[in-house]
């Protein structure tokens, strides 16, 4: 049995893995796990990842969860070009620094905007108060400024002159708010240029293919979501909304 990747391309980390594997010609079997249908909560998937989250990897009898761990596993196993995870101590440290920072910052705030603008109105059947959307957008804007000033600066890519895992992980996360209708690149020329470079480095067509679903997420309707998931989502999101 070869390498299997369990993915749903609506998920940012799944898109990073899919793009990384495809752009490096890593042979894998794409196992689709549709989150909206609750397929990640089945007994069958629990055998692959007891945490019931995508992405997940199965390589023979070896299973692995967590997208950063999977990206590094693939980079090492398939000896992908050095620029993805540089052997140079300080360049690698730059990649590690971004990957450590991004979870609660770019990922946290970008996901929150997507949930607030797309999923919450879908679950409650009510448009959100504008001030709620503005608050969440402002939180994202703060971390975008930090990303530009601290991580990107005036370099072509986060670790210097070549693309690394940090850039790929960053850009797929930033596409989530775009999928929610917030084009954060519009008034940020430096970010827009960086996005263009990242897309070109992995292949524009591949990048677009991976993002087809999320860029149509605004057309998502409640009947596409499994009923028990709707309840679960509603409970989680309303709880989160009341705390913010």
Automatic annotation (TrEMBL):
List where in the cell it is found.
Answer: Cytoplasm
GO CC term (a single one): cytoplasm
- The keyword Iron belongs to this UniProt entry's keyword annotation: no
Top-tier EC class = transferase
**Domain GST N-terminal per the UniProt entry, residue ranges:** 1-82
Q: What is the E.C. number?
A: 2.5.1.18
Annotated ranges, domain GST C-terminal: 88-220
Pfam families per record: GST_C, GST_N
Please list the GO terms describing molecular function: glutathione transferase activity
**Which reactions appear under catalytic activity for this entry?**
RX + glutathione = an S-substituted glutathione + a halide anion + H(+)
Q: Does the keyword Magnesium apply?
A: no
Q: Which InterPro entries match?
A: Glutathione-S-Trfase_C-like (IPR010987), Glutathione-S-Trfase_C_sf (IPR036282), Glutathione_S-Trfase (IPR040079), Glutathione_S-Trfase_N (IPR004045), GST_C (IPR004046), GST_C_Theta (IPR040077), GST_N_Theta (IPR040075), GST_Theta (IPR051369)
Q: Which keywords appear in this protein's UniProt record, sorted alphabetically? A: Cytoplasm, Transferase
What does the sequence similarity comment in the record state about its family? Belongs to the GST superfamily. Theta family.
Assembly, per entry: Homodimer.
Q: What is this protein called?
A: glutathione transferase
Species, as recorded? Grus japonensis (Japanese crane)
Organism lineage: Eukaryota, Metazoa, Chordata, Craniata, Vertebrata
């Amino acid at each position: 049995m070869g390498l299997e990747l369990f993915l749903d391309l609506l998920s940012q980390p799944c898109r990073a893995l899919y793009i990384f594997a495809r752009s490096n010609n890593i042979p894998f079997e794409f196992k689709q796990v549709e989150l909206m249908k609750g397929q990640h909560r089945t007994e069958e998937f629990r055998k692959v990842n007891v945490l019931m989250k995508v992405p997940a990897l199965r390589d023979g009898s070896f299973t692995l969860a967590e997208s950063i761990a999977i990206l590094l596993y693939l980079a090492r196993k398939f000896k992908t070009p050095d620029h993805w995870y540089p052997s140079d101590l300080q360049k690698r440290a730059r990649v590690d620094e971004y990957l450590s920072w991004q979870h609660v910052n770019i990922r946290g705030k970008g996901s929150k905007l997507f949930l607030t603008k797309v999923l919450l109105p879908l679950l409650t059947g009510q448009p959100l108060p504008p001030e709620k959307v503005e608050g969440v957008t402002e939180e994202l804007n703060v971390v975008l400024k930090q990303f530009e000033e601290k991580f990107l600066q005036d370099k072509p890519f986060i670790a210097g002159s070549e693309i690394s895992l940090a850039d790929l992980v960053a850009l797929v996360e930033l596409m989530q708010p775009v999928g929610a209708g917030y084009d954060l690149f519009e008034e940020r020329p430096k970010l827009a240029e960086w996005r263009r470079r990242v897309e070109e480095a992995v292949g524009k067509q591949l990048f677009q293919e991976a993002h087809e679903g999320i860029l149509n997420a605004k057309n998502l309707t409640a009947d596409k979501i499994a009923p028990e998931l709707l309840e679960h989502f509603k409970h989680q999101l309303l709880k989160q909304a009341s705390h913010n």
